[in-house]
Amino acid sequence: MPIQFDAENRVFKLDSASTSYLLQIGPFDYLLHLYYGAKIPDTDLGYLAYTCRHASVCPRVTMDEPYFSKDLHRMEYSCNGCGDFRGSALSILRASGTADTDIKYVSHRISRGKPRLPGQPATYAAEDEADTLELLCRDEVSGAEVTLFYTVFANHGAMTRHTVVRNASEQPMELQRVMSTCVDFHDARDMDFIHLWGNWGRERTPERAPLLHGTQSVASKRGCSSHAHNPFVALCSHDATEESGDAYGFHLVYSGNFLASAEMDSDGGARVLLGINPEGFLWRLEPGESFCTPEAVMVYSDQGLGGMSRILHRLYRNNLCRGPWKNRERPILVNNWEATYFDFDEKKLYELAKTAADLGIEMLVMDDGWFGARNSERAGLGDWYVNENKLRGGLGRLTERINALGLKFGIWFEPEMVSRDSELFRRHPDWALQAPGRQMSIARHQYVLDMSRADVRDYLFGCMKQVLDHANIAYVKWDFNRSLTEVGSALLEAGRQQEVFHRYVLGLYELLERLLTAYPDLLLEGCASGGGRFDPAMLYYSPQIWTSDDTDAIERLDIQYGTSLCYPVSSMGAHVSACPNHQVRRTTPLKTRGDVALSGTFGYELDLGKLTDEEKEEVRRQCADYHKYYNVIHNGDLYRLISPWKDRARCAWSFVSPDRREALVTYVVMRGGVYERHYLRLCGLDPTLRYRVESSGQVLSGAALMNAGLCIPENLRDFTSRIIHLKAVD
Ligand code: GLA
């Protein structure tokens, strides 16, 4: 039984494929956290709950109970203002004007499968893949009913949590904080805190530091998950490496403002909180209304950060991405953005497609600039009709001609935005987010549409439908190029304006769902000035996301390596672009650009017509490699072998097929030198099998490859790369 209730000890035990999670109904029916980590058989872990007498500064519930204090105990879902002084998972402002909140266990339900989250993306599971525990709690004074949901997966070392709050009182109440998960670790003194920081063109850089007393946190207030931080944190033991040690990952399935924090208390315990950022959030619940948080994913591995990543990768590939593109080989695309920017017409696109077809590329993506008066970033967003001065003969004719070359056709939209200089903004200025009396901040000459409004969403759906119904379009790149400011909605009353950030995200999800319901075969690629909204929620709709606007192969080592901490390579948009690179002016060999982009959803973003014959041959080879290695790269397990941050000269990673009979190693030199031979120790192979190294014909045991290593040729020059393919011969 994956979920057990030990009635005698009043303990719940939740087992995923490789983890156990235990909690207990404690004194006064408060829920106490007992354990989260490697799988264990016991349920009688009540001894872990705090049982010492405590100082008088720690409030008690009553004078008769000397041992229990919410100040010290590991609480399962911490509440504000009633004696637990660490960060709160829940804070409810009630009609009295006070925010004291206090929930106790009432009842529980265990069921097969996993319930859906209404209106929100989440992982999903068939009946036999997962089990769910619902814990109903109540705050007797405010009348809030709080249901904590836990799902454990039978095939992954993963669990998910979310919370639903229902106002069961006769008075309105306001949610100040309602986190998706709260986990109290007993002892975190030997733990590190890892998060992914970044910027435009430099997304998702891992940073690791010892957990200190007090709170370490990352957050977004931008209205999107953001370039600056990802809604992901990990805790790992000080000694955790890529392949050994304890590693816990916490990831929020959400695309808006988030908060992820870890707080070490005076006892050396740590509380992890993850959920919607309480700053800029206040949600009114009328009597009878409910609020559902986004979902939090939690994973644990005793095989270090690599083990943690692989659990997340498998979970996201199998139980988050959905639709026909989940398992279908994605088309190799050429995107015209870095090839032409805004300067294109139907002839240029057709020429690009013709060369692409000749080289083995399978789809042309027409990027920004095909609509309205959009000839630069200054105008046109919102006016989603084809500019026939640019695309003479119209979109239908162009797509037909491109399809006739054997290529699919994809198109760019930035639905959530409106240019100040656009017909849409002139007609509906109130459709943009704005705060009364305050000048609207402008970014990239554009404002953000109020996605909380149904009329705005209807308009956008109508525009997209008009385009998608009149041309054969296989793919949409859904872009989002600025943060939200002066966040107010013209349709909402003053008392609900603090809900707009979250209502915006719910509106976005609704539109994405509507689009995919109407066009189920459409392949969506998410984008936000590169990877500014690379989060699990967007992965639910778009199985691939443009990883970064920085397309330089060497910069991409850092970016893709960091992104892989929690996202599978099958989700990372990666293109071969021109040299010198447009972002950093670096020149790298075409082979290296191809080798790096192969570890992603592969494509090109350059003027193919400018390639020499030799380069065209290389592109043909790369396209063939993409098909040859697709399975091992996209369905295999990732092992990070040499980190580009630790070793500033080299970077290496590998993929191993689930049956461990095939592996592919990528090795890139960032700074060449007079190296001796390098012996690269592989991971994840079967030690008892023998593998043939395709390039050399050598046959070596998995044990030798993992312990003695694979011999990498000496004297590799700056920015060169090798791809090494191994197959079992036994
Ligand atoms: C963003 C995207 C780019 C491109 C441009 C077009 O910056 O990240 O890939 O689509 O917009 O304006």
Contiguous runs where pLDDT drops below 50 for at least 5 residues: none
Q: How many extended strands?
A: 38
Query: How many DSSP H or I helices?
Result: 12
Measured as a percent range, the helix fraction is: 10-25%
CATH class descriptor name of the largest domain? Mainly Beta
Distance between the termini: 38 Å
Tell me the number of structural domains. Answer: 3
CATH topology of the largest domain: Beta-galactosidase, Chain A, domain 5
Radius of gyration over C-alpha positions, nearest whole angstrom? 27 Å
CATH architecture of the largest domain: Distorted Sandwich
Taken as a percent bin, the fraction of beta residues is: 25-35%
The backbone outline, from C-alpha atoms, is globular
Tell me what you see in this structure.
This protein is of the alpha+beta class and 730 residues long. It has three domains: 317 residues, Distorted Sandwich (Beta-galactosidase, Chain A, domain 5); 215 residues, TIM Barrel, CATH 3.20.20; 89 residues, Golgi alpha-mannosidase II (Immunoglobulin-like). The chain has twelve helices and 38 strands. The strands form seven sheets. Strands 6, 7, 8, 9, 11, 12, 14, 15, 19 and 20 form a ten-stranded antiparallel β-sheet that branches. Strands 21-22-23-26-27-28-29-30 form an eight-stranded parallel beta barrel, surrounded by four helices. Strand 1 and strand 2 form a beta hairpin. Helix 9 packs parallel to helix 10. The longest helix has 23 residues. The radius of gyration is 27 Å and the shape is globular. Bound molecules: alpha-D-galactopyranose. The site of alpha-D-galactopyranose has 11 residues, from loops.
